[in-house]
């Protein structure tokens, strides 16, 4: 029996997305919102909505006690964490369970393990999943870092053990750079995360960022739903995502799928998750990290498989046996998603403010995920993503053409947005050729700004 009522511990477009599937499944929804989100569309779309605090996240969306209090008061049976915010907090998952509720996601100890980069690497190597050559323990000092870097050979990547969002990460190309970079990033990580531990790995140059979507139940069944290519990024955040990858051979796809399922088995993983890989020019792939939640870009997988991932999450969390079998899953056509940000397309700085117009392209095979409507005020308190536009075509070329047409009809006024940037990426020859490396923005987009 699937739940009758769930609370969504999130906001914006992902809250609206979860509500949509719940409505189709006749599950009542409870939304929580901050003072800044009182007029947000998802608040009205939910069956019940509760104010949980002031705009800043630590006073609202990260306030575990307030969220649990609302869950109890509203009679919710389970909590869907969405992505970001508390979705990868092992403490939150633990407290949800202790409160007698179901956390719609994996077990707290799995979240904790995958959230610790060093523990995650260890688990993956035990599961026989390829990992980038790197340190298994935190590096104690700049001197120790130097001898490790010399043994791997430059370039290397310095990473904060507790890092995220690109903080405490730096590519280093020489001994001279390393000393300064080690001290500086360790200090930053200490400031941001309360943990200055660093580790070092070999830098894979010009990689692609390709991830595998997995889904597992509590009864030992698991499937992967193929890959998503998410290489086009700015400031370590994805901007364009597609499925399948334009370059992956069938053999590498099969191997990556097998590796993803080995990881699931090793971890005793349940619910939806994503295993991110770096893939080099020879199609060698290396484990990057595991996201123990639904991803922002999950719609492209839904479009090519016909599977509603939120529905599957809810069914698995309510202890149903996975109805999907690997041999029943196949890739149908090609899907592309772009993230629409309230930001300056030249500087990437957030551009909060009052929307005065939002006109959306409509048509077959065009899908919208929206955090706003035409009269919304975009607040400065949260991630500046206001919408996602998703298209599906029989072929990649068709999907690109449809996306280009849709973007040209998409209108946002009142605030700056990255629509011009997205149009340039989608219509760029190198994008059409599938040359979507992680350096795409600096190689092909940023030069167009200086030429104006």
From TrEMBL:
Keyword presence, Lyase: no
Pathway(s) per entry: Lipid metabolism; malonyl-CoA biosynthesis; malonyl-CoA from acetyl-CoA: step 1/1
Entry annotated with the keyword Lyase: no
Residue stretches making up the ATP-grasp domain: 121-318
GO BP terms, alphabetized: fatty acid biosynthetic process
SMART domains to which the protein is assigned, alphabetical: Biotin_carb_C
Keyword field: ATP-binding, Biotin, Fatty acid biosynthesis, Fatty acid metabolism, Ligase, Lipid biosynthesis, Lipid metabolism, Nucleotide-binding
Catalytic reactions of this protein: N(6)-biotinyl-L-lysyl-[protein] + hydrogencarbonate + ATP = N(6)-carboxybiotinyl-L-lysyl-[protein] + ADP + phosphate + H(+)
First-level EC class: ligase
Recorded GO MF terms: ATP binding; biotin carboxylase activity; metal ion binding
PROSITE patterns from the UniProt entry: ATP_GRASP (PS50975), BC (PS50979), CPSASE_1 (PS00866), CPSASE_2 (PS00867)
EC number of the protein: 6.3.4.14
Bilayer-crossing regions: none
Biotin carboxylation domain: residues covered: 2-446
Pfam families, per the entry: Biotin_carb_C, Biotin_carb_N, CPSase_L_D2
Record Gene3D superfamilies: ATP-grasp fold, B domain (3.30.470.20)
SUPFAM superfamilies tied to this protein: Glutathione synthetase ATP-binding domain-like, PreATP-grasp domain, Rudiment single hybrid motif
Protein role: This protein is a component of the acetyl coenzyme A carboxylase complex; first, biotin carboxylase catalyzes the carboxylation of the carrier protein and then the transcarboxylase transfers the carboxyl group to form malonyl-CoA.
Protein's UniProt name: biotin carboxylase
Upper classification of the organism: Bacteria, Bacillati, Bacillota, Bacilli, Bacillales
Protein's gene: yngH
């Amino acid at each position: 029996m699937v739940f009758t009522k769930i609370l969504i511990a999130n906001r914006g477009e992902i809250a609206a997305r979860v509500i949509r599937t719940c409505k189709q499944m006749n599950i009542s929804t409870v939304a929580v919102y901050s003072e800044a989100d009182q007029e947000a569309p998802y608040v009205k779309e939910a069956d019940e909505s509760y104010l949980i605090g002031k705009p800043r996240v630590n006073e609202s969306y990260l306030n575990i006690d307030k969220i649990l209090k609302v869950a109890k008061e509203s009679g919710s049976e389970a909590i869907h964490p969405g992505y970001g915010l508390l979705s990868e907090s092992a403490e939150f998952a633990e407290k949800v369970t202790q409160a007698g509720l179901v956390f719609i996601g994996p077990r707290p100890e799995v979240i904790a393990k995958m959230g610790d980069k060093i523990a995650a690497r260890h688990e993956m190597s035990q599961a026989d999943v390829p990992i980038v050559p790197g340190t298994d323990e935190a590096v104690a000092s700049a001197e120790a870092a130097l001898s490790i870097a010399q043994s791997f050979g430059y370039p290397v990547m310095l990473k904060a053990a507790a890092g995220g969002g690109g903080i405490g990460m730096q590519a280093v190309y020489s001994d001279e750079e390393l000393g300064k970079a080690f001290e500086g990033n360790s200090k930053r990580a200490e400031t941001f995360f309360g943990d200055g531990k660093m580790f070092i790995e070999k830098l894979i140059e010009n990689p692609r960022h390709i991830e595998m979507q997995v889904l597992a139940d509590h009864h030992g069944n698991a499937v992967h739903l193929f890959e998503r290519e998410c290489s086009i990024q700015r400031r370590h955040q994805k901007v364009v995502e597609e499925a399948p990858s334009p370059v992956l051979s069938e053999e590498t796809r099969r191997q990556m799928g097998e590796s993803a399922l080995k990881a699931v088995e090793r971890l005793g993983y349940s619910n939806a998750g994503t295993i991110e890989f770096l893939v080099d020019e020879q199609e060698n792939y290396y484990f990057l990290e595991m996201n123990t939640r639904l991803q922002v870009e999950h719609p492209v997988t839904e479009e090519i498989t016909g599977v509603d991932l939120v529905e599957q999450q809810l069914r698995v969390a309510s202890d149903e046996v996975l109805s999907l079998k690997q041999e029943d899953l196949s890739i149908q056509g090609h899907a592309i998603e772009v993230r629409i940000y309230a930001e300056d397309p030249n500087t990437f700085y957030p551009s909060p403010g009052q929307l005065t117009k939002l006109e959306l392209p409509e048509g077959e095979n065009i899908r919208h995920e929206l955090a706003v409507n035409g009269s919304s005020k975009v607040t400065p308190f949260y991630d500046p993503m206001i919408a996602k536009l998703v298209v599906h075509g029989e072929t990649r070329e068709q999907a690109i053409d449809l996306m280009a047409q849709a973007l040209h009809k998409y209108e946002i006024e009142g605030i700056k947005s990255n629509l011009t940037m997205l149009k340039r990426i989608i219509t760029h020859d190198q994008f059409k050729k599938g040359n979507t490396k992680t350096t795409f923005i600096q190689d092909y987009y940023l030069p167009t700004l200086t030429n104006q």
